[in-house]
Write a structure and sequence with these properties.
Length: 98
């Protein structure tokens, strides 16, 4: 899932960590944030669980919208997150991420 420099706004993202756990966050620059997660400098949670890979993303027009959605997704169970990931990947016609 590659982003381009022309894309603007905010992203909600879910990454799968090396231990198969899922981490949800928001960012303006998805590529840079993923690189930081893999360097171990983005969050304490992912620091010990690298490498990580992007399994889901959602575009949002502003930080407020992305933050609200992040809170919704963080309250989902693991199974609900997996269903969201699978549904999103079907829409974007990508392969199953895990």
């Amino acid at each position: 899932m590659k982003t381009t420099k022309k894309e603007t706004g905010w992203w909600l993202y879910i990454i799968e960590c090396a231990d198969a756990s899922l981490y949800t966050g928001i960012t303006k620059d998805l590529e840079q944030r993923l690189a930081k997660h893999n360097e171990g400098t983005a969050s304490r949670y992912t620091r010990a669980r690298t490498p990580v890979r992007l399994v889901y993303r959602e575009a949002h027009p502003d930080r407020s919208s992305a933050s609200r959605r992040e809170n919704e997704v963080k309250r989902l169970t693991r199974d609900e997150k997996l269903a969201l990931i699978l549904a999103g990947n079907r829409l974007t016609k990508t392969k199953r991420p895990f």
